[in-house]
Amino acid sequence: MAKARNGIRYPASDKKKAKFLRTNGLTHREIAKRLGISIGIAHQWTRDIRITPSQKQAINARKNQHRMSATERKAVRERLVPFQYRVKYSDEDLLGKIKDFYTQNGRIPLKREFNALRIYTDRFGSWNKAIKKAGFETNPVLFSKRFIADDGHICDSFTERLIDDWLSTNNIAHERNVRYGKAKFTTDFKIGSDIFVEFFGLAGVQKTYDKNIEKKRLLAKELDCRLIEIYPDDIYPKNRLSVLLRDVLCRAAEN
Predict the structure, then answer these.
(1) What SS3 state is found at 147?
(2) Mean pLDDT across the chain, nearest whole number?
(3) What contacts 218, CB < 8 A, 6 or more positions away?
């Protein structure tokens, strides 16, 4: 009897069959399944056998075939249905989550803040359609809409308005759209005489936009001013302005 490394003794006929199957182009996995042995043993018994290029092609062709027929796959899906989607939400439940978010945060949620985005797309056609169905106006695309901050400043996006309102709430005097010296570029916010605050909402999205970011960094350095850069991840899902503008807050408190 043939003895494997694991100490189990197999009939010599099994080793002979394994060699025969390998010679006929079966994989070690297929041999193991046929003979009821491990893949390692199948490899050990047949390692001196080399398969031909045509046999390799046949193996690759088998890999790309479905292991189950359409009828078998359908039967499996039907069998698994009771175990899937245990938590079922009605349309009202899904829209209620958007409304609850608005009540808690004072704004509609962004796509990235809802992990179950796919179910909203499946039910309502798109995320924006779900927002409208919930009774809200959709978030503006990029900077296509103007927003008025609490202090009357006109902002280019909803997020800029959030930043403007945060500055006002914390009694931090600020200006909008101030030039970088004599350059054509303007900053989103200027605090005092030496702090520029920019919300780079399209960083990594547009190449021209990224080049302008670099130009603004150089301009701020030439003017000996501090440039505070704010990105979407600094606002959503958690507002980190109090961390990014800690020094500004302290200076405002001293004054």
Answers:
(1) strand
(2) 84
(3) none
